[in-house]
Amino acid sequence: GFVDIKDAEVAGFSNFRVLHRIFWAFGQCIQAFNHCRPVLCIKGTPLCGKYQEVLLTAVALDANGYSIPVACAVVEGETKESWMWFLRNLEQAVRHPSDVCIIHDYKRELIDAIEDFLSSDQRQWRKVESRWCMEHLAEDFFAYFGDKKLVMMFKKLCQQRRLNKFVKIWKELDELTTKYTAEREGGTSGEMQQELVQHDEAGLVAQSPWNRPDSVDSEEE
C-alpha cells in the first residue's frame, strides 16, 4: 500500500503534532486498478459531525462496471494546494499500463490544480487526460431546460461509442433544444412537450454503470 501523512507542530508543544492531511491507497486496490479501465473519477465530499475536513477519493470501474476505491485522503478543504497534493500522491501510488484519464467536476480549485498537474514536466504518468463529469454537466443541463427526457438524451449522447449514432443523437438533441429554447422565449411549450412524449423513455435511459446503485456519482442521481 501507500500512505502519506502531513502533520504540523503546535506552538509551545515541541513534542505534540496535529494531523493536517493523510493519503492512503491499499495494495489490493492499487493492483486491481491495473485490470480496470484506465479512468479515475476524483471527487471531494465534506465530512460531517465533529470532523469538518473533506474526504477526497479516486474511484475506478472494473470490466463489470463495479466501482473500486483506489485511493482516499482527508484534507483541510478543497483548495488548489490540497488537490495538487492529492494528485501528486495518487500519481506516486497508482500505476497503469495505459494512459490515464481523470474525470472530475468543474470546481475552480480542482480545475486549476489539474491544469498545473497536466502541464508539469515532472509528471510520472506517461500521459494524462482530463474530462468533466457527465453527471455534473447533466445537472446543469436539467437546470437550464428542466426536462428529464432531454437530460436522458444528453446522457445517452455522452455514453455513445459509435460515431454514427453519436452524430444522429447529437443532431436530434440539437434540434429539440433549439426548438425548446425558441418556444420558451416565445412563451409556448405545448408542442415541444408533445414531441418529447413521442420518444420512448425506456430507450433513452442510460444503461452505463454510472446509473447503477454503486456507481461513483450515484448519490447525485
TrEMBL record:
Any Pfam family hit: MULE
Signal peptide: none
Location of region: Disordered: 182-221
Domain MULE transposase: 39-138
Highest taxon, organism lineage: Eukaryota
PANTHER family per UniProt: OS02G0685500 PROTEIN, POLYPROTEIN, PUTATIVE-RELATED
Listed name of the protein: MULE transposase domain-containing protein
Taxonomic lineage of the native organism: Eukaryota, Viridiplantae, Streptophyta, Embryophyta, Tracheophyta
